[in-house]
Amino acid sequence: MENKNLNNNKDNKKANKESKFEKKLKPVEEREVVFVDSHKFEDDGIKGFKARIKLQKQLTSKYSKQILSGDTVSTTGNKPDTDKYAIELYGVRKWYTNGDMVTPILKGIDLKIEKSKFIVILGPSGSGKTTLLNVISGLDKVSEGDVFSVGSNLTLLKDSHLTMFRRENVGFIFQQYNLLSNLTAKENAEVGENLSKKADNAMSIEEIFETIGMKEQMNKYPHQMSGGQQQRVSIARALAKNPAILFGDEPTGALDEEMGRKVLEILLEVKKRFNTTIIIVTHNPNIAEIGDTIIHVRNGLIDKMSNNPNPKKPSEIDWS
Ligand SMILES: Nc1ncnc2c1ncn2[C@@H]1O[C@H](COP(=O)(O)OP(=O)(O)OP(=O)(O)O)[C@@H](O)[C@H]1O
Ligand SMILES: [Mg+2]
Predict the structure, then answer these.
(1) What sections of the sequence does the record tag as coiled-coil (predicted)?
(2) Cα dihedral 219, 222, 224, 229 sign
(3) Containing domain of residue 196, as a range?
(4) Could you tell me the distance, in angstroms and rounded to a whole number, from the CA of residue 288 to the centre of ligand 2?
(5) Greatest mean pLDDT range, 21-25, 58-62, 188-192
(6) Counting ligands in written order, which one lies closest to the CA of residue 104?
């Protein structure tokens, strides 16, 4: 009996601690900037890689909580400009290791992505687009360098804090829509809302469905909808948490021409209405023509970045 009470107490304490922790974001004027003197490693073999990972782990346990509270921690001497940019990358590299073999994937990336723009990441298969999207969205971590997203250095967040960061700040649309089959369109969208635990949500679910042109379909189940409609529900789910940034990896990849154009139109509408920064990956140069900015990725590097002064409308691009 006594033991059970003790356990309950423990659980309560744990829950309290977690909910307090989430409210720990400092007021803007109290936030600090910390420059970490992170020594340079010359060795690009397995030894150097292990030394980098070790240092990153140490810095992560030291600074992760502080980053989540709103402080800026930089290992490259760069301070992010959050008024102007949604995302900033400095000296970013990513490897995969297999035994003693190190395979470089991202090979040294510096990048600034302006807020409230439509960004298209373009490049051939295997060039590193998905890897890049995953590290800037906090789904995966880099091996070296700073990734500032909405001001937070994702490189030094531990996994549980990274999860909190994603819940609070970013939305995802995948090539496969990943809807829950036993929930209606509206209920699927509400899943996003509940996960983010945001009380002051700027958009109501009804407003979101109106924006995506799906108000009539809100009570349908996934199997009663076309692919394009399901993808729009997955956009609604991502929008339900009012994300600063909306990420999509080949969001029209599974759709036919008509539905693909429709989904792109919705994304442009979302940018216009809610000022959301939209970042999508595609291997299709035609789709890139609707972007404000195109990031060309080749062989793990940014080949070039170009701005479209007059982006095309989804109805104006070739499709194939
Ligand atoms: N877990 C992993 N382990 C080892 N190598 C990986 C891993 N994931 C990806 N890669 C390699 O990284 C490179 C970049 O992969 P990525 O998925 O980022 O390419 P992509 O540009 O998105 O290609 P696609 O257009 O085909 O989706 C590829 O050579 C891939 O084989
Ligand atoms: Mg990919």
Answers:
(1) none
(2) positive
(3) 1-320
(4) 15
(5) 58-62
(6) 1
